Amino acid sequence: MNSELSSQQVKDIGEQGLLERLQRFCPPKIIGDDAAVLETAPGQSLVVTTDVLVDGVHFSNITTSPEDAGWRAAAANLSDLAAMGASPLGITVGLGLPGELRVSWVERLYQGMTECLQKYNTPIVGGDVVRSPVTTLAITAFGQVNPSQIIRRSAAVVGDAIVVTGVHGASHAGLELLLHPELGQNLNNEEKTALIRAHQRPQPRLDVLRILWKILTPNSKLSIAGMDSSDGLADAIIQICRASGVGAVLEHRQIPVPKTFNHWLTPDQALKYALYGGEDFELVLCLPQELASGLVQHLGKGAAIAGRITAGSTVILHDEQKKFPDQVLNLSQGFQHFSQ
Amino acid sequence: MNSELSSQQVKDIGEQGLLERLQRFCPPKIIGDDAAVLETAPGQSLVVTTDVLVDGVHFSNITTSPEDAGWRAAAANLSDLAAMGASPLGITVGLGLPGELRVSWVERLYQGMTECLQKYNTPIVGGDVVRSPVTTLAITAFGQVNPSQIIRRSAAVVGDAIVVTGVHGASHAGLELLLHPELGQNLNNEEKTALIRAHQRPQPRLDVLRILWKILTPNSKLSIAGMDSSDGLADAIIQICRASGVGAVLEHRQIPVPKTFNHWLTPDQALKYALYGGEDFELVLCLPQELASGLVQHLGKGAAIAGRITAGSTVILHDEQKKFPDQVLNLSQGFQHFSQ
């Protein structure tokens, strides 16, 4: 890229000019009318989710390159679809941009976004670009799901095992390392890179769905409860319990954390990162014990049965080794806990 | 509303608190999971459109109450669906809000939005509320359309009549009256109110589709070309001609304008308002002459055949009374024309 191009600002080419530049990230023929048209498969329900991200609030040039901001925004929305059991159909991208923003920043944002989307065969099908004093990114993702396979927060029943599809705390650890590199002095480069990558390039767990439906075929009338852990593992379990009118017991030692944590963090720190760190974008699923074991086996590394659904309404953190006393988790306690 | 409530700010109740307050504008049961689930009819294609609106750029407290800003945002998105031939299924609303913004402002925005949406049986099915230094509204609307009835810009053919579904220029006249009340001294109150209302409460022409499909049944294989006139009537016709590789002749006296214009504006001003004013949210449709006549008859007041599609690529404004010389319309000329 020559220096003239790389210093070009949004106001130099205008919203319309920028939209034309961004069209190479979208499938041809989909753009050009007042709205995009997409095919859905017969008998499928439509699933829709939306996120707004604001510069300085949800992303920042300090810890996040434009490519990573784009990847993370796409991943978060695809994760919401995965959390409903839905396959993605497409996303729309609304951008509010200051005139002084570099065009190359926007192109790099789209580059990261499409890198993530292409991994899951998801096109950008529409968008809007407008002038705004603050860089703002509004993504709406839509997908489709067989109505019998919708995953809902409200479907957990007493006795269900709680499956966590991967390790928790890695994304928060990566963010901490970006903000305070000195924290990483006891980690080797590979360990640091892995944690930072977990923060910058989270993987929405759409792959879990294929395995889930394979295991469930003989029990297809079963409703699976679940959501993603974007706001933290504790939050996910509490939200599921609230929506389902049940409680849960989490087993301290069964909560999967990155191996690195064992020699890098105290057990208490590791627990905080895992429960309250957020943005790991794993799925938390509640299903009968036997199916849960099968799912964890198929998922492999990081997946675990982290607890079980109980009667009542409390979510208890239990340590079978009795090193920690039982703790009742709730959302406000969670956040206080983390900010200590 | 007591004064304590009316002065409450977004930061007093937080994003989560505000989301809870706004849920009364949404159908129960649709909200609560990571994403919303909607049914689509078998065999229909999904249509998606998105708009971002920024305080000070797209709306302003000077001319627009929060209710009107909400109505207009919803209407613009429904109009994009109508322009594709699609029936609305729902919208998602992403909000970026400064902490200092009054909660009542947001509730009034939602009030106006749902007033418009309810008229067209369209639910708000999801949303996101985040902190932002500038009030930002990102709406994504989705609808469904029988694939054989998709209206596209690219489907105009030589000989088609150009149907305009209603008067043009009223919205811009209303905005001018709000900004410069002194311009209205030759208008009575009823006339002023009607023009201002056209600006504040535009009506997306979803009603046109029902009439269109009734008229078209015997010719159902016919592709209709069209778009909405949100960016002005001249823009709509030029866009259709560009996408279809055709030209057009517009007949000056056939362009429908509000009756008020005849005794209030010079013919030249009236023409500028009609061609370049924008935000009338009417439909511009291209179809065979006979069907066009039937459609105009069914639509009644304001609807007209304003011209015809020709070979070539120029869009000519013609005056059969020869008071004005023929003019070739193009987009940049349009804007220059209007800014004179």
UniProtKB/TrEMBL annotation, chains A, B:
Swiss-Prot/TrEMBL catalytic activity: thiamine phosphate + ATP = thiamine diphosphate + ADP
Domain (PurM-like N-terminal) ranges: 32-145
Positions of Mg(2+) 2 binding: D51, D80
Keyword check for Kinase: yes
EC number: 2.7.4.16
Pathway this chain belongs to: Cofactor biosynthesis; thiamine diphosphate biosynthesis; thiamine diphosphate from thiamine phosphate: step 1/1
One Pfam family cited in the UniProt record for this chain: AIRS
UniProt domain PurM-like C-terminal: residue ranges: 158-317
Gene Ontology molecular function: thiamine-phosphate kinase activity
Domain of life: Bacteria
Binding site for Mg(2+) 3: D34, D80, D228
Binding site for Mg(2+) 1: T50, D51, D128
Enzyme class: transferase
Binding-site residues, ATP: Y110, G127, D128, R153, S230
Similarity comment: Belongs to the thiamine-monophosphate kinase family.
Function: Catalyzes the ATP-dependent phosphorylation of thiamine-monophosphate (TMP) to form thiamine-pyrophosphate (TPP), the active form of vitamin B1.
NCBIfam families: thiL
UniProt-listed HAMAP family: TMP_kinase
Name of the protein in its database record: Thiamine-monophosphate kinase
Organism name: Nostoc cf. edaphicum LEGE 07299
Gene that produces this protein: thiL
